[in-house]
Known about the structure:
The complex is a heterodimer. By secondary structure, chain A is α/β, with parallel strands linked by helices. Chain A is built from 11 helices and 10 strands. The mean pLDDT of chain B is 87. At the A-B interface, helix 3, helix 4 and helix 7 of A face helix 13 and helix 14 of B. The complex binds adenosine-5'-diphosphate and magnesium ion.
Amino acid sequence: MESTITESRETITAGTSMDETEGLTYPRIECKNINVSYGDKRAIFDISLPIPDRSVTALIGPSGCGKSTFLRCLNRMNDTIESCKVTGEIIMDGENINDPDIDPVLLRSRVGMVFQKPNPFPKSIFDNIAYGPRIHGLAATREDLDEMVEKSLRRAGLWEEVKDRLSSPGNSLSGGQQQRLCIARAIAVRPEVILMDEPCSALDPVATARIEELIDELRKRYCIVIVTHSMQQAARVSQRTAFFHLGELVEMGDTDQIFTNPRERRTEDYITGRFG
Amino acid sequence: MVQQLGHLPMGWLMLALLAMLASGGFFVGRVQAERFNGAAGSVRIHSRPNYHGYYVAMWTFVPALIVALAYAMLGEGIVRSLLAGELPANFRNMPSVELEVYLDSIARAAFDHGYGGADRVFSAIANRFLELQGMVKASAIGLALASAAFGFFLARRKVAPGFRARTRVEGGIELFLFLCAAIAIATTVGIVASLLYESLRFFSEVPFWDFLFGTRWNAQTSAEFGALPLFYGTFMIALIAMLIAAPVGLFAAIYLSEYAGPTVRAWVKPVLEVLAGIPTVVYGFFALLVVAPAIRSVAVWINTTLISAGITAEPLLAAQPTSALAAGLVMGIMVIPFVSSLSDDVINAVPQTLRDAAYAMGATKSETVKHVVLPAALPGIIASLLLAVSRAIGETMIVVMAAGQRARISPDPTADLTTITVQIVALLTGETEFDSPKTLSAFALGLVLFVITLFFNLIALRVVQKYREKYD
Ligand SMILES: Nc1ncnc2c1ncn2[C@@H]1O[C@H](COP(=O)(O)OP(=O)(O)O)[C@@H](O)[C@H]1O
Ligand SMILES: [Mg+2]
């Protein structure tokens, strides 16, 4: 196990330098003064954060510090929670996605999401992937749809494993395969941004390593934001890291810098395991 | 003296006495066990003194209780057979049914505090009955006390430091709980058995297939027992009910669980539950007094319009004062809460992560419901529909009041129909002779009803179980 981790870290650091500069010069998403509250309880305090394109941004921090809440702002999933109120601007492609004119349903087709627990629909593997293209009318013909499904599964590194049983139910796959199925399902809608909320926390180390490889592959095409409670994972897969604590953004910067040379005392305490 | 004892209402007295003895047993056991405790520097006492107390109390109470229960069940029978044995020969040669009737009147007279009539023989026998009753009762009391004492001494001898009174008491409690469960099961088995037995008697007189597939039902006046029209009526009304209840209940459940905010939910759910709590008689007279006349007048209007327009020459609809439609509609309203509350439960049991997944793909609420929530909840929804069907089939009051009595197979929903339950009520109310095929046919109908609802319930249960496995 030890060896795969160091291995994958090497492959990642090898590729980072170029993307990093590229991503930083063009923030894909610009969050300005985000505040979130659930009823009277405030969960996010005035967070401003640029998110670069074609790279992985990791959100780390102790449990309950608002990582998921923040992530869910980026595709307005918080709209589905009655008590949740979000203020502030999130600029994506020159538009503020918190603008009342923006249709969250359309926004979510541009910003895909992968959840903590693999949650395939109780449908066949094929129908799971085809779901997004179908509701958004992306495929004109059956051949288009077949092609899209194959492409998405290939990108998620699952094609070889499932190509002979596309009609068997999605939940018949293993946990790690299910999570890759969910990633493929998100990709099928052709998003520009992919949000992942602790995508490996329900998986074993081998499956985790596969997902991490996949994330590294995906960042060539997408802007990825990943929440993780594992600092090793953040160090392995991300180029940028933001450290949250009690609903505030304590520090953000290049992953290398955050992990080797944090500016804030709280960040250092957290990554050295003194709390959290 | 013995005769007076015969009158004494004994059940409660006996119970109070036994309870007193038991609490006495409890204290004796506890005190005895406490002594070990005090003395015990070296001995380890297994159970706390209270448990020894419970143990002794248990053994004091239970055997005596068994005797008392046995007396309550068999006492009068014993008295009667003793009395019958003493009766003069001319009585003993009576047919047994007559003898029973005679003894019944004796017992009644005896309990009415002495018979004041002129029949000397009768009054002598009644007195003797009381005497015997007193004797049997006295022996029962004696036996109960003796077994209480016996149990008490046996149990007390067991009390010792190493005695596992706690384990034994636990065993006693388990046995008690088991017996309670067994009573429920035994009752069910008993009911089914009697249903089966009487039905078999019926089928020995009326061929099974004639009953099941015969199309003429006329049990009251002539002996025609073709139950098909009843099955048809039951089916028709249940179908109308489900045509109302399935969509309304299901959509209400979807609204409640997916769309309604917490405030609306907090109001609507209790209201639906009130709907479920309305006595069916109330639904019944609502059906009879409001819905049935309304349907009739609409049907009449349709008839006259069609005739005046020259489309039909005869009235198209039966337009009866009671109708399948009236009963079915109201029954549909009645079962809405069953469908909606069960469906609401299963819809809520669909993991939120599945909805999130759909929303995150850019699905709208109704797309999410249609493509993800409903398919995932489908087995549970089917189960709730099946339970509602079985409710509708077994429902009696509404159909008795609003469906009618005429057994016929008619596709016209404004015609009156009759159902299995209505006919059972009709067969068993008023003058009934227990042995006639007419009365027995009620058991056969009951059996059919039981089998149908059991079938639906079993399927529903299986479906629900399968569904649980999937999401755990
Ligand atoms: N649906 C919700 N309703 C109310 N409070 C919530 C809800 N979701 C999260 N919170 C609260 O918001 C805070 C941040 O939660 P979350 O974003 O889930 O943290 P993290 O993902 O970092 O563990 C926590 O205090 C949590 O209790
Ligand atoms: Mg979280």
